[in-house]
Design a protein that fits this description.
By secondary structure, this protein is of the alpha+beta class. The protein is built from nine helices and nine strands. Helix 1 runs parallel beside helix 5, helix 3 crosses helix 5 and helix 7 packs across helix 8. InterPro entries: IrrE_HExxH, Rad_response_metalloprotease.
Length: 261
């Protein structure tokens, strides 16, 4: 059995084809990319896209027994268009990187957000690198200040969710920034750039730190989208700026953008 393919390299390869020989327009048209860069190439495997209603998953990739024919099944009933796009790119990641490992992939909201599963994490990496190319992020957003307004701009530019946009931007940024996802005052997960300092409140289960703008917004029911200066609450020595965004899906997520001074 062949080894899996590097998701970053595959995403970069398709990005180069799109930017050099395709329309080079963004948000990326995934259907056109598949038609132009995969279905008309010398791929030994065939891919069919099928959108319909499914009750048990958001996306799936299935091989027809004994053939090199694959069908990508996408749940048309998912209301969030950005989530549908990311699921499409995620399943494409399985096709490009993992089709020699399994004959079937099936993804729900839980598996799409499972950062502990190596295969699913790689498919997410492929999707984020493909939908949000590094060259465009650096050229268009490299000099912006990091707050929820910037986060919304990035999400709108690439038609990606705020979480996916934040993960991609923070990991690319040379600035000392971080992004924290919490609910009910407890951190669910967080990501910080390479230049960001140590953060005392960063891991799953940590409470939002006292004195932070984040905990004040949580306790007082404030919207908190305005950029606010805070003292050394996330790090013992570094002051920071914070801004908040409360998810409107009803799941109670609070997103905090942090830029250290």
């Amino acid at each position: 059995m062949e080894k899996k393919t590097d998701p970053k390299k595959e995403a970069i390869r398709l990005t180069k084809l799109w930017q050099q020989y395709g329309p080079n327009t963004y948000p990326l048209d995934l259907d056109e990319l598949v038609s132009g860069a995969i279905l008309t190439s010398d791929f030994s495997d065939n891919l069919i896209i099928d959108r319909q209603r499914f009750d048990s998953f958001e996306g799936s990739l299935v091989r027809t027994n004994g053939t090199r024919k694959w069908t990508m099944l996408l749940n048309s009933q998912v209301r969030n268009g950005r989530r549908r796009r990311f699921t499409f790119a995620h399943e494409l990641g399985h096709f490009m990187c993992h089709r020699e490992l399994r004959n079937k992939f099936e993804d729900s909201e839980e598996s799409l957000n499972d950062f502990r599963d190596e295969i699913e994490n790689e498919a997410n990496t492929f999707a984020s690198w493909l939908l949000m190319p590094a060259n465009l992020i650096r050229n268009e957003f490299g000099s912006i200040q990091w707050d929820t307004e910037a986060l919304r701009e990035i999400g709108n530019r690439f038609e990606c969710s705020l979480q996916a946009s934040a993960l991609r931007y923070v990991r690319l940024s040379p600035k000392p920034i971080a992004f924290v996802v919490s609910r009910d005052g407890m951190i669910l997960w967080a990501v910080k750039s390479e230049t960001a300092p140590y953060m005392a409140s960063y891991c799953f289960g940590d409470e939002l730190p006292e004195g932070s703008h984040a905990v004040s917004c949580h306790q007082n029911g404030e919207v908190g989208t305005e950029r606010q200066a805070v003292g050394p609450v996330w790090n013992d020595l570094r002051h920071a700026f914070e801004s908040q965004y409360f998810d409107q899906s009803g799941q109670g997520y609070q997103y905090t953008c942090i830029e250290f001074q």
